[in-house]
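Researcher: Let's try something more involved. This one mixes different molecule types, so please make sure each is placed in the same coordinate frame as the others.
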Amino acid sequence: MLNFILHRAGQTLIVLFGVTLIIFFMLRVMPGDPVALMFAEGDDEDIGAARAEFERALGLDRPLYVQYFVFLGDILRLNFGNSIVRGGEPVLDMVARALPLTIELSIYALLIALVIAVPVAILSALKQNTVWDRGGTAFALIGVSLPSFWQGIMLVMFFAVWIPIFPVSGVLDTRLSITRVTGAPFTDAVLTGNWEAAWSVLRHMTLPALTLGTGICGQFVRVLRSSLLEVKHQDFIDAFRARGLSERAVVRHMLHNAMPTTAVIIGLRIGALLSGTIVIETVFAYPGMGYLLIQAINARDFPVVQGVVVLLTAMVIAANLMADIIHGMLDPRVKLSGGRGNK
Amino acid sequence: MTRTNWIATAQVSALALMLGLSAQTVAAQERTPSGTLTIGWRWDPETMDPQMHRQRYTQIISHNMRSKLFYQEPPGLAAVPLVAESITMIDETTYEVKIREGVLFHNGDELTSEDIVFTFDRLWAEETNSPRAGMGNMRNIDRVEAVDRYTLRWHTAVPFGPIETAVVAMHLQGQEILHKATYENLSMEEARTHPPMGVGPFRFVEWIPDQRVVMDAFEDYFEGAPLVERIVWRTIPEEAIRVAELLAGSVDMIFPVTPDFIDQLRGANMKLEIQPGTNMRMLMMNVREGSPFHDPEVRRAMQYAIDRQAIVDFIYSGLAVAATQVPGSGQEGFIEGYNPFSYDPDKAQPVLSQITEPLEMFTEAAWELPAQVVAEQLRGYGMNVTVTILDQASFNATNEGGNFDLLWAGAGYGSGDFLGAYYNNHFDCSRFESNRIRTGFCDPELDAMAREARAEDDPELRREMLDEIIIRLTEVEMPWVPVFNPAEVWAMQPHVEGFTGSSAGQFMNMHNVSVGN
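Model: All components are placed in one shared frame. Result:
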């Protein structure tokens, strides 16, 4: 296990180095830069000179390779720089503000996805080739195919405007406030016993989590259904039935055997979950990592885009590593090892 | 105009101001703030330091907490005194500003000229590295000094012209006043998030970045207490969601609103506040050698080719004004009724049908529809025009680099100024020195005329000179086809009263806004 983790940590460092290289130069190759955008309009008599001075003060007039090594050196010291657009706010502060929101939203979306996916997959697998199975497969296909932007707006129109059950957007009712403990609003509200705020946060998260959750649950349904079908025809399941186990107990055993594959898929979908937040968070005015990233890209806020991408990459790699470890723990047949010759 | 005339004008203004003040004093006694107004808008302020940004929306928030010497009273563009009481031109490079007495900061301190000197000194200090330091013509200001507790003098390196233009050039309508005792002890990092201390109608309560800014009424505001007790500014980037919030009743007002949602909002009995905008949309042509638009006859034909009114009527449902000249409606130099090129396809056809080479028109996603309509109109003459959509940053780079045949662009004139920054940024040859190519148009003779007109303080002579410059740009040089000015639109619940939108878009003056329930 230790070997495996060390081996993956080494790979991670190489990947992260590659990501810093790609994101740094890709941003510079793209047309436009933050200072040009900032000075694109304004009533300065000599806007060109004003812009040049500002660029100089930020070091953006230095050769690109110098800027890259400065960026790399800063990252090694865990300094992700300061936002150019947002008055010099440290990138880490922005991430610390946005990340807990995204984590809570992602967990909620994941729970919704599982709550929908597990029964649908079980029903599809147990009643294979029936109308239930075809319905479940169609549901999975629709979930994967619906554009999240459109789905989000539709959910808002139905459940916030026409039948006002949930708030339209945002994080918390404007009358309420939460004492910061971890930065994650629901967790903080619970930790401080602020139940009204916790309920408000949960209601605000429901529509974005539902949009995000239905987007990923389709894939869960398909994977879990396939795994269950595979297990369903195994001899030991027939043996359970022959021994007179109840159907509920048989299903429990089937699930236990099908879960490792699904756990891996969940881990692999963390990346998709995070990329899904880019659209969902913007639609629902939910200021998490996706929202932060899209705002920073639009403003060409180089340090913020670089910092967020590097951190997101690290998170996705960590999630995949966790999925592998959990897979190993759930399925004793899988042996985790690292390095050459240790297979 | 002579110095005596300016003093007389200032005295009349001061008298009017005093009369106004006494009326306001009475009104102030009757003003009791009540209710909460929630505004859903697209943005979030970038910082709480008013000197470290260049965005209108950050300024809108800041202005409600920290007033300025002058401001553009909605709905117009003219700068009128706010904290200033009067301004006098001492000589062609010296202006004297008197400020109101008894103006209080939110902590109860009285505003003095020292606070204003500190504000501008901090703005221009090298260590501040403020992106606003060069706004207007502030680079040509030598210094600002306090004459006494309520009097200041601005000393300029070059003549700034009559008071109306000097106020804009000195950016007195654009800089919020800081409280010296607070800000002189703050580092730049601390000032970014420090609760704003100002003399504005609202006091800072809270800022949760990307979520909301909350401010409460300041009852000792020098123009009387605001009518609303609390304002919550909620950040909602997506327009469809802003509209849904308004329809759901969870916000009282939204901004901005595009024509796509107007019918839906009207159908739901929402109130609309519509003001002519100050962002002209135009078709820029590359006039450099090698481009088909290098030929003035082609540029002239382009002026006849586009049916502006059809775009205004059918795409913008009337929420725009067709543009017919280089300055926009309400801008300095705008010539009332001047429309040298009416829509005339017969005049456009013979010239434009000769241009068969493929041409690319660049635009941003927000302007795709009108750009496509214009491209289709041009294709009707036999031109081979395709539209390419760019994101804002790429579009800006294309614009500055002059890397286009046609560019569906915009030019804002929120300050109302024409001969200053607006002319310099779009037409003056000096812009090439900082690689702002744009259309590639340059005429040193016209630049000299603009500089001469700028320094002219006789209004009639200045008007004549401006007319000549504008007619030459619009009718002879024609680097643009002016197309239209979209309106600024706010939508609100029926119970919101007293809001007047600003054409400049720089201000949302909430002082007189009330909520019925």
